C-alpha cells in the first residue's frame, strides 16, 4: 500500500565503505533513497545508516556527503553512525523514525527485505508503517543483481539474534 501526504522516513542501509568517498553500492543506494521520496509528503527525512565497518569514516557520513555534495540534496538528514550490521541498522534507526507516518527501507532488493523483516521482528508496531521504496529499476545494477541475490539469499538463511 502506498500512503501519501504525511511524514516519511526514507531509510538507506549502508554497505562497507573503505574510503571517504561513497563506493558504488552506497552511491546506488543513496540515489534510490532520493528517488523513493514522496513529493507529496508533508515532511520527508533521509535516514542514512552505517558505522565504521571498513573505513575510518562512518558509512552514514560518507553517504550524507555524497547526497549533499554530489547530488545536491538539501533536505533533512538523520544519521545512524554506529551500526555494524543490518540488525543494528534497524535497531539504531528506530528512535530516529518512530515519529514518522511512513517508513521506507532502501538497499538492494534482498537486503532491503532483510531490513524490513528485522523491523517486523524488533518493532511490529511501527513496521505496519512500511511501504515499498523505489530501489528497483529495470536494467540498473544488471550485472550485480545476480551476485547480490546469491549473497542475500545465503545471509537470509543465517539465524539472527532477537
TrEMBL record:
CDD domains: YdcF-like (cd06259)
Top-level taxonomic group: Bacteria
Domain annotation DUF218: ranges: 8-122
UniProt cross-references to Pfam families, sorted A to Z: DUF218
Regions annotated as coiled coil: none
InterPro entries: DUF218, Rossmann-like_a/b/a_fold
Gene3D superfamilies: HUPs
Protein name: YdcF family protein
Organism, scientific name: Nocardiopsis alba
